[in-house]
Amino acid sequence: MSVKGRRFYASPDGQAVDSRLTVQDVRLTEMTHRAPIKKAVEPRAALTLEARININSPLPRCRVNFEVIRNDGLIMFSGSPMVDCDPPIDLEAGTSLDLRIHFRANVLRGTYRIVLHLVDTNKLWTPIEISGLASFVVHETTRVAGCAELDPAYELSVSAPGASPELVVRAV
Length: 172
What we know:
By secondary structure, the chain is mainly β. It has a single domain (8-171), classed as abc- transporter (atp binding component) like domain (Coagulation Factor XIII, Chain A, domain 1, Distorted Sandwich), CATH 2.70.50. It has no helices and 11 strands. Strands 1, 4, 5, 6, 8 and 9 form a 6-stranded mixed beta sheet that branches. The protein has a 3-stranded antiparallel beta sheet with strand order 2-3-7, with no helix packed on it. The relative contact order is 0.23.
């Protein structure tokens, strides 16, 4: 079924290339609206990814990895609940994996895609990458460049020799 070292991909439209699973339902929402995202979001927007993945073949000792990748390929975030000591899960054929991931779009302007990985903690079965699961666009006009929102606070003062500084800009 698999060739060692080869990656298998699945897509969110139910047309899985990897026969071990089928992505049944995916929804990316802004937590304040609970409706699917239809326009760009602001930096720091609270988002929720919900998905149902039907398991067609046993996937024992499965770890779920969550990634947010910028459109140029830069991995902005990669994490897993199993990193924080939650145990891997045994997914049996005929079951469904329902997931809900809450996160903040704490990034600057750009287009980002969400990718899930199902990985065997013992590396006995080939990992599955569910690419293009969802995407979102962040729009903002107050930053020049970068990838993370650092919430800067600026205080700029101007002073002449011998005079007290005069605050000219205070942006918090």
